[in-house]
Every structure is written in C-alpha cells, then in structure tokens.
Amino acid sequence: MAEHNKLLIAVMILTVVVLIVTLAFNGASGVGPPLFKNNTGVLSRKYPTGITPSSWVFSIWGVIYTWQCLWLLFAFINIFRKTADGPAYVSPMILPPLLFIAYIFNLCFNTAWIFLFGNEHIVLAFVALFLIAFCLYICMFIAYRNLYRNGPLLQKQGRNIEIWMHRVLVHNGLGIYATWTTIATLLNVVMTMVYGATPGVGIEDSGTVALGILTAELAIFIVSDLFFLDNYSRYTVTPYMVVCLALGGSIDKNWDETKTNSIFSAVLLGIGVTFLVVKIIVMIWRHIRKPLYPTEIAPTTAGIKA
C-alpha cells in the first residue's frame, strides 16, 4: 500500500507559497512605483506592437490564475482522500514532484518578467516569458503522460470523475496559461525587434514576423493535437479559445484594412475559430465512438472515500 510522499507534499506547499508571492507582485505591477518605473498598462502604450490585443483581453489573467488555484486545490484535496491502495494523490501518482518543480520555476520566471518588463528591460523580459511558457509545456507533458499511463488504473479503482478533473482542471488550466504566455512571448518578440534591437526593425515588419511564427505554431499544434496526441490531449480545448480571443482582441484594437497584419490576423482568426469548432466536434465524436477507456462515458466515484 502506498504511503504519504513527504517530498511531494513539501513541493506542493512550496508551489502555493510561490504562487501567492507571484500574485502579489502581479497586483503590484498594475500600480507602478516604487517597485516598477511604470505600470504594465502604461508600458503597453509606450511600446506599441501593432498587434497587441485590446486592454479588455488582458482580463484573461484573472481567469488563468483562478484556474491555477482550482487545479492546485484539486491536487491538495487528493492528499486527504483514500483508496484501497493508499492516499489518492499517490495511488497512482499522476502529479509528481517534477511537475510542481517545473511549475515553481514557471512562477519564478513570471515574477522575474514582472520586474524586468516593469523596469523596461525588454530583451530580458522576452527571455523570461519564453521560459514561463517552456516550463508550462513541461508540466503539460508530465500531466498528459501520467494520466494516459495511469488512466486504466484510475478507472479500475472506479475514479472516472477524477480522470475528468485532471482533464478539465489540470490539462485545460495549464493549457490556457501556456497558450496565453506563448502569445505574450510573440508580442515581446515584436517589442524586442522594434525597441530592443539596434537598429530597430519596423513595427509592421516585426508584427508580420510574429504572426508568421504564430501561424507555424498553430499549424504544428493543430496537426499534432488532432492526429498524433489525441490519446493525451483530446479534452484540452483552452488553447484554441485563447488563440481566438487574442486574435479577436488584436483585430478589435488594430484593425485597418489597408495593413497587411490586420488581414493576416483576420485570416488567422478565421482558422482559429474553424478549428475550435472542429476540435469540439471531433472530441465529442471520438468520446462517443472511440472512448479512451471502455466505461468512462458513465463516470463513477466507487472505490474512493474522503
């Protein structure tokens, strides 16, 4: 029978502490001095990119952090739940210490980005944002792999609802965070090219480069998600939603039918919306016709107790 894992509990607690610190600095960044030269809103206006979304889009941060709190709460609740094989969080261990360590690094880079961007270190801020997204993709890889490997055991234990909690809270929670920081990284690519390089590149050309990178990333993501990673990512839909939101917000703020990047963004938005619909249809069809586990359409909580 599995026993409590002290290392895992310790890194989970540390994750919560670091998250609280990160949230505190995020809140302070909206104020500005004395910690930062300017608040993030002022800096976004000071360093325009031509493709930055409208200010209302950035309220997604509230959704992102709420989702992070929910999946962490789910992880902590499992410490106090029991199965016939031991504590639920280690029987089997789906969210291991390595995932939380990678997540802590993401939070540290998040805080670093707040200070770097708030004090106008544009190039270093770009590096920090890239590392945030990189750490989150590591977390997603671990979460996907472990649920896929241990899903049959969870089902055997009658924990189908828990499988869904991983899909909805953990996978989609990490997905919305990783996708948004990926897009934010591309915005920082433009800032780096225009304001951090010597000589700087034009805003329109830099925006085209960023949208071109987004196109390549979107193509790779869609193909891999629908055709190669279905067993892992079938129920992760938030990346598609974030792309549509970001592009819609960009068009809302920057639309000019005479500019290439406006047309480019509109085409990408059309592709994003189309494949969001395709993703949902394919997900439902495969869930009904090709379920990953034989009886998961009828979830149960048998075999587990508080």
Automatic annotation (TrEMBL):
Coiled-coil region list: none
Which domain of life does this protein belong to?
Eukaryota
Keyword Transferase found:
no
Q: Which UniProt keywords apply?
A: Membrane, Transmembrane, Transmembrane helix
Transmembrane domains' residue ranges: 54-77, 98-116, 122-144, 174-197, 209-228, 263-285
- Return the protein name: Uncharacterized protein
Organism of derivation:
Patella caerulea
